[in-house]
Amino acid sequence: MTQRAISSTGPILKYQFKNFERIPVKIWQDSKEASIHVAQSIALAIRQKQQENEPIVLGLATGSSPIKVYQELVRLHKEEGLSFQNVITFNLDEYYPLAPEAQQSYVRFMNEHLFDHVDIPKANVNIPDGTVPIEDVKKYCEQYEKKIDDAGGIDIQLLGIGRTGHIGFNEAGSWESSTTRLVRR
Q1: Can you tell me the distance from the alpha carbon of 52 to that of 117, in angstroms, rounded to the nearest whole number?
Q2: By the number of CB atoms within 10 A of the CB, which of 21, 26, 81, 178 ranks highest?
Q3: What is the CATH number of domain 24-157?
Q4: Nearest 5 degrees, angle CA 168-CA 172-CA 175?
């Protein structure tokens, strides 16, 4: 029988020795009610930034979690005049290699669920490019990070947690300091 030991010389995760702060938690009756609340909070932040004549930077996700949020944002745009003219977006991820018009593309997903239904300037939409040549991916990822920094960072990040606990292809055990990169699954 083979025995394996865990090495104590490996890196120590920072969070092992931190005191955790209490994160406020709100519970709603259902996902629709929660999604409406999230969308209204985003809309309020957009309007506040408009009053200040400043852009707002949203980090966006795909998958089933944010769909109802996007539906409510579209409704707020169409029925209540919420403008997305001052909104800059950065999507969390994209499949690679994949053309933007492909059925599984997150570009297509975002266009279908949000961007094609609101007045966001196309120049303000940033989604990782799934067509970058493999030899240029590292540089592209660094440039994507720089674009986020140049925009002033993310004001609000919308996230979903996948069935395996992953967030943006960051599986359990991913480093806290992970940056934009090609993830092989």
Answers
A1: 25
A2: 178
A3: 3.40.50.1360
A4: 80
Kindly report, residue by residue over 87-135, the tens digit of the pLDDT. 999 999 998 999 999 999 999 999 999 999 999 999 999 999 999 999 9
Q: Is 171 a catalytic residue?
A: yes
Q: Domain spans of the chain?
A: 24-157
Q: Position of tokens 């940056």?
A: 179
* Residues composing the chain: 185
Render 3-50 in DSSP notation, one character per residue. -----TTSPPPGGGGPPPPPPP----SSHHHHHHHHHHHHHHHHHHHH
Q: Which amino acid is at 108?
A: R
Distance CA 181, CA 141 (A): 6
Residue 6 Cα to chain centre, angstroms: 34
State how far the alpha carbon of 136 is from the alpha carbons of 93, 131, 133, in Å: 17, 10, 5
Residue type for position 163: R
